[in-house]
Sequence to fold (597 residues):
Amino acid sequence: MGTPTSGGGRRRHRRKLRIGLPVAAAAVAAAVAGALLTSSAQAAEAPPVPKLSVPSAKELQKRLDIALAGDDVPGRTSKEPLASSSRATVDPKIIGGTTTTITKAPWMAQLWYGDDRGTPTNTADDIGFFCGGAVVSPTKIVTAAHCVKGYDWLNHGTIITGTSQLPVAGDLHGGSRTGVLRQWNHPSYSASTIDNDIAVLTLGTPLTVKPLPMIPAGNTGSYAPGTNATVFGWGRTSSATQDISDDLKTATLPIQSDATCAGYYPDDFVKSHMVCAGNPASGSDAGTTATCNGDSGGPLVVGGRLVGVVSWGVTDCVKSGAYSVFSKVTTYVGAVYPRVDDTNLSFDHMADLFVRNAATQTAYELDSKGTSLAARDSWGTWSGYNLILQADLDRDGFQDLILRRSSDGDVFWEHFVPASESWASQLIGDNWKSRLSIVAPGDVTGDFLPDLVSVDSAGTLWINPGRGNGSIGASVKAGTGWNNYNVVRGHGDFNGDGRADLIARNKTSGAVYLFRGRGVSGTSAFAPGLKVATWSNTTYNAFATVGDVNGDGKADLLARTPAGTLYLYRGNGSTGSVIFSAGISLGTSFKQYDLLG
Fold:
């Protein structure tokens, strides 16, 4: 036990290499591709190389040059208004701050947007601007919606991390750059009120910098008036000039009460959606420590966690009595978390399904089209396993597989390694043959690292906390009596509070329960079960939870009838007992599959 064999009898289905690489890596990639497709028996057993397109270093530099030359305002430009606001919407700066280093804020990101509008010889219509952001996982950056909404970051964005200095003439000062794979902004973001001003950029290449965890949902202590918070950013350091800072700046701002903020901004401040911080501005640079509606998208930090996103402020930045305003992260973590945990096989916003044919042992990828599934794509023969789960234990943006070997119950983490463009196996569970259920629900313990949950033969529920690198920690007991359930599933947040949940079905009554995650470890990890349906084994005999299938930011459930019809039950984020919308048929041919991811 404990040694991964040749993939448990898998045979790789040969498929064209589908990853796009920077020009400098093309020769290496070609050599690797040849080895994967033609050489050793070990290579012939690897899963397909993930489909992903990454912009070249030359293209990223082109975008950066446009952004550096630009002076546009995120959310609106002088060339083509994209939004309007009664507030001053950018000019990122920290007034009264001090210079700091990237070692103090390794998760800081520079967001550069450069679009030549399809007219490379005419710079008059270019759009170029800068925003800040915080890395919250290897491929995810939280920023402001006004930096994202209405822009095409996939084709025009460049992200720089790992440096405290802004780039100069192509010199990144030790930092690294990458492109954006997809973007999301809060669906209720308002450009006129700058409400719900939060967004997430997903990168096409995982970062190695240390992420900044978000504040948990429901946390109020970090927003207590008088609590010292820290803001970080680049940009102008005086209201009197347009000069920006070449170096990262920081400032300490005391959190203000909702009453104080609403008193100064009676028509603009939205309680529970916003938080303001800082002492009242003095009316001039001297005596003022504040953001100026900006370092737009940059982080406000308390206790090592992201509590706010720089959103807006007064027009002149230092108007007497004014405060800086931030989006309140604890309110939005339920909406943001699904975007942090939205890895899927086809790299879009919708979770896909991995299945295996019982007769042939052939595995297939079925990509989601929202409320239907695309034609299946073969992954070749996958025999020797009795469990296959989709997950992303290292949060690198490439979906992993968790496999249990039938012969001895050993559980392996099968993961893609971008540097070598190959797959690797790592033992994470020794002799889990008797485990009744193994689930990859996401972050159960509240540290924003994906965990594993399992039920042993005695009915004990165990949590194995993830370490963020694919490995898991020692088992922690989380409950008993779970052998009363013949189905235990989970992947994501079913009730919209930003915490991973479990779904379980009683084997006698068919009652289906939601066990709401509390974001802690141990026996308090899940709230008591809330009945959400009654589905006996004659109604549905297989379930799968792969995440957000229809791309609306809410976890969904897949259920199969004994006759083989697969239904999609879309999560609606309800805090009550009706957590799924009516089922939608995804097809009638699913009886042939013995494993659903």
